[in-house]
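name: query_chain
kind: protein
chains: 1
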Amino acid sequence: MIYFLGLFSLYGHITYGQTTSITLPQANIQARTDYNTAINAGTYTSVITLLPSFSVKSNTAIFNSTTSGSLPVGAVHMKLSSIGSLVLLGLTGNNEIPLSPGGGLLYTAVASVASGAIAANARIATAGQTWTAGVFTDAVSFYTQGLLAGSISPSSFSLSINIPGFISPPGNIGTTTILVNNLNFYRSSNGITASQIILVSSTVPYIPSVRTGSAQFSFNTTFPYNASPVPPVSTVSAALSGVGTATATNLSTSDQALTSAAGIAVPTNNSSSITHTYTISNTSLKNNFKQAGTYTVPLTYTWNKLSSAYPTAPLQAQASGSLNIVVSDLGEIIANQQSVNLPFNTTSNYINGVSTNMATHLKLSKTTPYNLYVRATSSSFTSGVNSIPLSVLRIGPMTGQTGVNTVTLSTTAQQLIQNADPIIDRTLNMQYSIPASQTSNLLGKPAGTYTANIVYSFVAP
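structure:
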């Protein structure tokens, strides 16, 4: 009797008897959930009833791709489901093994195993792996070991992992709102910026772009206005934050790329939060968005696969959104000089009257049409117990200053400007005067400084 002692590993040089292709679904990539699928691992042919063991190995440590890099074989885990009529699912000792060139033991039989087809489960672990679109291939061998363990045919087959190309943004981006609720935004060298974070999943590098649905912003308001503003969308610039290839661009009705031609690479774990920023310069704010109200334009976001990336056909995704610019009802009056002096020092002053010019005396900002009023808080100019009537004083524009009336000071608000258009930082050159016709009201008054507080306002109290 002849005994054959030792271990026989019935695998040799690679022959591709079949090709098995697994497509990893987009849903599993995005959710980072494992994907399980059944594969045909070949046919087992029993020799004698000795107890065989079943193993699996890959040819190399990576799945190679002719299009985009490689994939570690350990991302794929194998487990036997059945051999012929023997169902292995749930049996103790039926191991799940990550693929590797060194191989791994799947199952050691505890009884004789009859010949038959071998079914296996392939589990692809998606977590911790960045998946790039392409077809990744390596040779895989299911093989037996043991005394006259039998054989598996084919001895090796080609396993391909197909990673689909996709770009998946949200269906609707929502509204990005720029709140202009402080006059300082009109003065800041940086203007004003608002951001929108967009979560994009992809297996391909892409170039993002944005376009508007119209060439001008639409406008609506509950505040008073003299004319409906129609600012062009080009007054707003768009950019990406934290992206090395980002390029800033003005909004337009045509697609404006937000990166260079290099685009954005496939993100780690296939998901990235891209911050889109919208900026209005202080000059554009002053020229185009000084009327209180809401300015709106629809946006279309587009993501295009780089033409050089797999797959060869174009791949595009789109989502809709909108941009709102909300300007609050803001107002400010600044008196640049807090004290105005009208000296009566000579006889000529009493004969001819006195005037004082105050260049850039007032600075006005108002985001709705406005009136400008002036009044005194007391009934007369006073110096101790002595007084001079308010009516001696005239307040009006300096020579060359337009749009301002001359009024006689009173405790009742007097209108200097009527229904002027919204403005930011308008300066007024003002003149204070006591004309010759009023100097008689100063005669016989004790020497002294006669004062009154003067208030400018947009609303007559």
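note: The radius of gyration is 41 Å.
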